[in-house]
Amino acid sequence: MKKTALITGILGQDGPYLAQFLLEKGYKVYGLMRRYSNPNYGNLEYLGITKDIDFVEGDLTDESSLYTIIKNVRPQEVYNLGAQSFVGQSWEISKLTTEVNALGVLYLLNAIKQFSPTSKFYQASTSEIFGNSNVDGFLDENSPFKPRSPYGIAKLYAYWMTINFRESYGMFTCNGILFNHESPLRGIQFVTRKITDAVARIKLGLQDKLYLGTLDTKRDWGFAGDYVEAMYLMLQQENPDDYVVASGSTHSVRDFVDAAFNVVGISDWENYVAIDPQHKRPAEVFHLQGNAKKAEETLNWKPRVTFEELVTMMVEADLKRLQPQVK
Ligand code: NAP
Ligand code: F7E
Q1: Model confidence over 255-286: pLDDT tens digits?
Q2: Which of 92, 125, 126, 252 has the fewest C-beta atoms lying within 10 Å of its C-beta?
Q3: Which residues, in sequence order, are bridge partners of residue 178?
Q4: Known catalytic residue: 118?
């Protein structure tokens, strides 16, 4: 019998990488997608796995749809990756962000408790729950939580609810506290992909300038393809627990810009980059750097792709994607 997994957020960045990983392990993969007039299968297509997914329609804000899906599918593993995941917009759409990222998790946990209580549950938690709690040092599972955005606050509710179902009902629920992870499948709004897309366009003569909110903030960037393995490993342990997943190194947005322009041989990149305050956030998280020792020791997980390899991979993918537009 094939193992079964349900992935919410199947059309996003992480969903397709996780689906690919599980399919290679022989899983039957169900993907929850919302109702769209024109669904975008682009990221699944990129990995060539669209036809391998069993799609189920539902929405994290629609409790009854989750009840129906869990009742019908009874997956052995549920990976909750669906979210309003863009921090920058979470102030403007704070109610929606809360409904999806906080209440959606409660609905899903309730559905599992009622109809498939032995399903193992992975919650996509985030380094954003730490906020600026440790400005210059490493963050781990014991660092204080001080979220700085409606996104981080909603995710902190979900973090605690995930633990509460474990403690109250003995369910197998885990939080993966993942630091930033990127890839050629990253949404174009996020800073890394915004940069690599712009660098490729500038190199190909399709764009003049790249406008950013700041060059100073620092993130612990890893490769999404590496991080989905940690999600899987959490659900294979004997006991449920929460884990930080990070590369352990941090770089500024400036470092990322510099590395990306370096890939296309442009050294005077300051001439192509400008600050636009419209991309600044009402409250910023300045410095993120994770300590993934627990995941390394317990899950035997380690990131493989380095920062330089990640930037190169993303710039090269954008160059390839844009090449047909060059006359
Ligand atoms: P993403 O690319 O934004 O994908 C999120 C997915 O959630 C999208 O496919 C989206 O559907 C879906 N979604 C949004 N609202 C929904 C709703 N109401 N019901 C059902 N699905 C909904 O995010 P990602 O980068 O893959 O991240 C995956 C998860 O990890 C997210 O929960 C994110 O918050 C969390 N996380 C990400 C990072 C990171 O660095 N990438 C780090 C820590 C935690 P549409 O395709 O229809 O928009
Ligand atoms: O911003 C700065 C911005 O939007 C990174 C999500 O996956 O990771 C992600 O959240 C940094 C911030 O990601 C621009 O202010 C400067 O300091 O790429 P981002 P994020 O906010 O770190 C966490 C772990 C998640 O959980 C989230 O789901 O870059 N920045 N100028 C900019 N950011 C954007 N987007 N656009 C700019 O123009």
Answers
A1: 999 999 999 999 999 999 999 999 999 999 99
A2: 92
A3: 126, 245
A4: no
Ligand 2 atom 36 nearest Cα: 191
- Residue-wise pLDDT for 4-32, tens only, equals 999 999 999 999 999 999 999 999 999 99
61 Cα–ligand 1 center, Å: 14
Mind listing the domains of the chain with CATH numbers?
A: 4-181+222-245 (3.40.50.720), 188-219+251-285+306-325 (3.90.25.10)
What local confidence, expressed as pLDDT, does residue 266 receive?
98
Q: What is the 48 CA–ligand 1 centroid distance (Å)?
A: 20
- Cα separation, 210 vs 299, in Å, equals 40
Q: What percent of the chain has pLDDT over 70?
A: 100
Instruction: Answer whether 158 contacts ligand 1 (Cβ < 6 A).
Output: no
Q: Is 151 a catalytic residue?
A: yes
Closest ligand 1 atom number to CA of residue 61 = 18
Kindly report the pTM of this predicted structure: 0.98
